[in-house]
Structure formats: C-alpha cells, structure tokens
UniProtKB/TrEMBL annotation:
Entry keyword annotation includes Phosphoprotein: no
Enzyme Commission number(s): 1.8.1.9
Encoding gene (name): trxB
Species assigned in the record: Campylobacter vulpis
Catalytic activity: [thioredoxin]-dithiol + NADP(+) = [thioredoxin]-disulfide + NADPH + H(+)
Protein name per Swiss-Prot or TrEMBL: Thioredoxin reductase
Amino acid sequence: MLDLAIIGGGPAGLSAGLYATRGGLKNVVMFEKGMPGGQITSSSEIENYPGVAQVMDGISFMTPWSEQCMRFGLKHEMVGVEQVSKNADGTFTIKLEGGKSEMAKAVIVCTGSAPKKAGFKGEEEFFGRGVSTCATCDGFFYKNKEVAVLGGGDTALEEALYLANICSKIYLIHRRDTFRAAPSTVEKVKKNEKIELITNASVDEVYGDASGVLGVKLKLQNGERDLKVPGIFTFVGLNVRNEILKQDDGSFLCEMEAGGQVSVNLKMQTNIAGLFAAGDLRKDAPKQVICAAGDGAVAALSALSYIENLH
C-alpha cells in the first residue's frame, strides 16, 4: 500500500511530492499520464515567480522541478487515474486506466484545470486546424501572418504579446472595453503597434475549408466584422478537472463548491479524512504557479501529519 498518492504532476503535485518525501514518507507515487510540469509548460513567458529573475518560457521554467522533486524518492507513474474512492477501513482506492488499481493511506488531488471552450460556431470543427489555446505550441505556424486572439485576462494579453514577436498583426478581441489583466501588461499591449484592440466584440463564427481556418466573423456593438485570418487563439478561462472525484452513483467523494472546485480549509484538507486538494482544483485558487506550489507544500505537510497520527 502506498503511504501517499499524488494525482497530477503540475506545480502543486510536484511540490507535494517534494515535501512529502523530504518529510520522511517512503512510498509516495505521483500519478501523471504525461510529462510533469502542468499547464504552465504551454506558457510563453513567466516573469513573476519570486527568485527567478530572468524571463523564461514554461517548459524551461518547469524542467528543473521534476529533477529536484524526484531527488528524495518520489516515484512517477505515467498512467491516467479514473477514480478515487474511500474504503471502509479508511484507506483509498485509486482506480487506474487499464483496469488496475492502487491502495493508499492518503491522497492529494491536484489535477488542475483545462482551457474553457469559447462556444462560437466552428470552434470544435477547426480545433487544431486554426483554433488553438496554446500560443507557444502553435504560434510558429503563423509566422509573418495575421491572427486573432480572444480574451481579456492576463493569459490572453501575454500570449498576444508573445505572438506579436512572430506574426505580422494581432487582432485582440474582448467582449468588454476594459481588461482584467495586470496594468503593466495592458500598457504593453496598448503600446505594441502590431496589436489592434477590438473591444465590446464577440466571435460569432470561425469558418474555413479542408485546409483550415480562413476567417473569423465578429459581432460588434454597431455591426459586424470579418477578419481574414488563418488562426485564432482563445483564452477565455479555465474549467477544473474534477472528474476523478465522481463516484459510481454520480455524487462527489468530498464537498464541492458550486463551480466544481473542491472545498478545502487552509490546510488543504477536504471534509474526508486523508483526502487533500491543491492548486487550481481547490476553491478560491488564484491560478498562479507560486500559489499552486504553496498549496502542494501545505497539502503534503497536512498529509504527513495525518499519516503519522494513523499509527
């Protein structure tokens, strides 16, 4: 039986693994189907992590985390988790893809979040063929071309600035006339000659043919506009990944918030003894790397205390 199962390999999961193993737990496994690093690995630049003075892309930033966090004995299982359930004896069953399962004394869930769909016509049809949620992944395909960016938060504006280094022009579309991003980022966007702001607007439809996207139709306050662009990048928020907490009867294993986030206290404890949640998945998460890392450390320390008290 595992002492601790950590589900998710982003900043929260890796930090939890580091603190749990360095704190003395011997049998700790982090379940992450892909490479560790989390959603931040698709970010084009990180400039606000304390102690890291140089601006870095997400992959370069996260690469040393795995090495450091595995140093004290954390194991990484590259397999997807389908469900977490609690047993009558207080232990947990982690149901894995392929029909296997593991038992654990305690579980930290840090499955994070995924980009929301914007909901316009053609979004699903052209996803991966001109509709993207990752500028660092796909920006290169639009070198010296015009593209659209949809969104008004930090991610949308930061990625628009990143794309401005590659593309000939960026149309930044936002449904309001004010932005939710940091003032310094808004100022940079407004000063960038390659970025045209289209505010109080929404995307009505993305259209194209077998080759991919050919244009984006917008609804404006005073009419319509048709942008002849081969690509659009959407950054309209995040949905938490809470599926593994769903039980066979459709209920959730622990208390949840109205938006699907896990209810936790300041120790990252859920209402189920031995079950902890950290990072984007937990209620009121600021969705910042430093906060997720802190959550993971707190959850691991709470799990250490919980497991010690079992004996």
